[in-house]
Write a structure and sequence with these properties.
Low-confidence stretches: 9-21
Mean pLDDT: 88
Oligomer: single chain
Number of helices: 2
Strand order of the largest sheet: 1-9-10-11-12-13-14-15-3-4-5-6-7
Order of helices and strands: HEEEEEEEHEEEEEEEE
Distance between the termini: 33 Å
Shape: globular
Number of strands: 15
Length: 212
Amino acid sequence: MLRFLRQNLLYSSLILVSVISCKSYKLADVKPVATTEKMVENLYFSSNGDYVYKCQMDIYKNHVSGILIIKKLNETTHRVALTSDFGNKLIDFEIADHDFKLNYVLPDLDKKIVINFLKNDFQQLLKRQYLVQESFENENARIYLSTIDNKGYYLFFNKENGLLKQIIYTRNNREKIDFTFDAKKPIFADSLNLQHKDFKITIKLFQITETE
């Protein structure tokens, strides 16, 4: 894992500073609808218990696996720890919408590109509240659009069970990350597929221990 990360840091840095050409994101096959909802929430990480997942990361055809633990510290902050499959701690940080505190990182992982990648992804994943500006629907989902500054969030809620099934994160109206959830309860996602749209990076989480 560490050798892979070292080999890809320079290559990934060049990718990050390059100009990415991608189309503006637009919803397809939806119709606008009136709503009384002023705010919607992602409650999947709102419990006070530990969220423990098997974590698989694929970065430019390289595969990394480990155990990911997410714990809510208070209403705004979570603690996230990633260990190897053998239990060795790789990184440990506390994160909120506008704050990030690095508690520990393995020296070989202590690279700006790695830290920024994890910080951004988990800030978007763990964001809880979204002010609603517009709402839409299609055959299967009710969709809410929340915007702040140059960021946009499209939240798809399943019509049958009311559970959040997808978040599309955009920046400058361009799709950046697709978060897709599989869940049976509103406070716990059984699995998560996180896919970057402009980089060959995916993170998959699979339930190990369910919170109450």
